[in-house]
Design goal:
globular; seven-stranded parallel β-sheet; alpha/beta; binds coproporphyrinogen I
Amino acid sequence: VTAVAAPLVRAARGEPVDTTPVWFMRQAGRYLPEYRAIRERLGLLEICARPEVAAEVTLQPVRRLGVDGAIIFADILLPLPPMGLDLGFAKGEGPVIANPVRTAAAVAALRDVDVESALGPTLEAIRLVRAELPPEVAVIGFAGAPFTIASYAVEGGAARHFLETKRLMYGAPDVFRALLERLAGVVAAFLAAQVRAGADVVQLFDSWVGALTPDDYARCVAPFTARVIAALAPLGVPVIHFGTGTGALLEPMAAAGGDVIGVDWRLPLDEAWRRVGSARAVQGNLDPVALFAPRGELLRRVDDVLARAGGRAGHIFNLGHGLLPATPPDMVRLVVDRVRERTR
Ligand code: 1CP
């Protein structure tokens, strides 16, 4: 533990900072030519399996953008292969799981995971990145929340309507809960291991919870997310709890936990912050597509997010969801510079 925590960590705890910290979901990835150069030789899972390469790809956006956090290069689906699922990434780059989990027998057949060995390369990448960066730059560990990982495990890939996932949740709630329970155990252990490896803050991606009714979320999903977050509390590292399409779920999401609530662009940040309560920090919430707008329009929207944060302690600037692959890197840098200028 360093004497003075990184600004991103301080903001996550709701403490005042000199300048609003800024980073971007999906800041490592295809919009960067230096990432694409590595992806020409190596697949996504190959990068994740090689700590030196994963560390390099993690550091690329930190060098180019000067952001306050380095999110470790990995994927929310990495825990699935050690549990016995056959994960691959198809040409179009979306995930494909050849043996999706849709029955009680399939849930029972899931293997227990020793995260230190099975997910060792990600932990080693965290150690390498932490050793490389100055203490002012936070290392961000992450995992998928149980529901969002389950949606891939049940569907066998990306889904639009979550038909198989909801069919299981509505038709066999005990099986669905058993699956989330298994995932919660692995995710909690993986995040704890990331913290031991040097992550200064962790983000739980529940990207697709917005597809649920508040009642289904509260009954079938939130208890497992809450269990993951509660398991991390003794480690003393802030947790960012993120989802999209969560306009109807902000209160139950906040109740499930997280020092920081991630907000997408569909809600004004001030309104979202009021709803989650001033005791929490918030992260967000520029529309990722704003980076394709003319400069003046982009800057106007950055300023609007900052104005809604109102200079209060506990705001981490980010997008409302990840950077899109076609984003011009210079526009991302422009956002970083604007946030720094406006909040100094
Ligand atoms: O090689 C490639 O460029 C393929 C695209 C890609 C990348 C860059 C995938 C496939 N995964 C990743 C890395 C990744 N995934 C990171 C680290 C990069 C960074 O943030 O800087 C992170 C944080 C993730 C997290 C992730 N994977 C999420 C949650 C974030 C979100 O966008 O909501 C999800 C849902 C996934 C699944 C996944 N992996 C890859 C894709 C294309 C997807 C989404 C598929 C879908 O649309 O459902």
